[in-house]
Amino acid sequence: MKIISWNVNGVRAIVKKGFLDQVKELNADVLCLQETKAQNDQVLEVLADTGYHIYPNQAIKKGYSSTAILCKEKPIKVWNDLDQEEHDGEGRAITAEFENFFLVNTYVPNSKGDLSRLPYRKTWDAYLLNYLKELEVIKPVFLCGDLNVAHQEIDIANPKSNYNKSPGYTQDEIDGMDNYVNAGLIDTFRHFYPDTVKYSWWSFRAGARARNVGWRLDYFLASTSMLPNIKDSFILNEYEGSDHCPVGVDVEF
Question: Which of 142, 6, 157 is nearest to 69 (CA)?
């Protein structure tokens, strides 16, 4: 089973850049999208020809945030949001239940350039972790998506100049990721590739992608009990069309 996550930075925009062909090439069993920036009916329309079962979650604000899960086979159950009013207006989470695990697809709030949304971001991280641990009582979990944090120095091209200044690389956000890991959620890419420098996001400015001045913001976290089933974790830098690239895992049951 191949599960892929991709922040597409606007599903209607990326479809115009060959996304439907890329979806066929990726051939994922489950494809999780973040930042679709579209209403549910728009997502269903532009992705209708993929052949997948499509489960979108729209933000109240049109053209903002939003997520979707595409599945070859129907999950047991799919539901949107986190059942918490504070966190449920921006279409940032979808949970799909499969036979052997829960899959949570999320687009974590950005703390903003002036870090004005960092306090809210901290409450999101804490609430989401609690949500995952509640699910884990029932069966193992995957958390995938744009987590909007570079966890370690190896995950960001310029750590010193960005530390505690840029959203996604403040100590509070790093601590939030530490809390996930300390709670038994494995960063699958780092598990397989502890010393590999590979990024999943590059600014559109100053030729950052061509120079590989990037950040690793996109993750697959997994319950420790899932490790025997995870055969690989990967970052697909060659896929373009967004400022992010796809990331994923191969699992067997």
Answer: 6
Tell me, rounded to whole angstroms, the distance of Cα 89 from its chain centroid: 18
Q: Mark out the alpha helices in the chain (DSSP H runs).
A: 11-15, 19-26, 40-46, 118-136, 159-162, 171-182, 188-192
Phi-psi region of 91 (alpha: psi -120 to 50; beta: other; left: phi over 0): left
pLDDT tens column, 119-161: 999 999 999 999 999 999 999 999 999 999 999 999 999 999 9
Active site residues: 107, 146
Query: Domain residues for 185?
Result: 2-251
- Token pair listed for 189: 């890419």
pTM across the whole model = 0.97
Cα 115 to Cα 90, 109, 172, distances in angstroms: 19, 11, 11
CATH number at residue 125: 3.60.10.10
Tally of domains in the chain: 1
Angle at 190 between CA 212 and CA 55, to 5 degrees: 85
Q: What is the pLDDT of residues 14-44, one digit of tens each?
A: 999 999 999 999 999 999 999 999 999 999 9
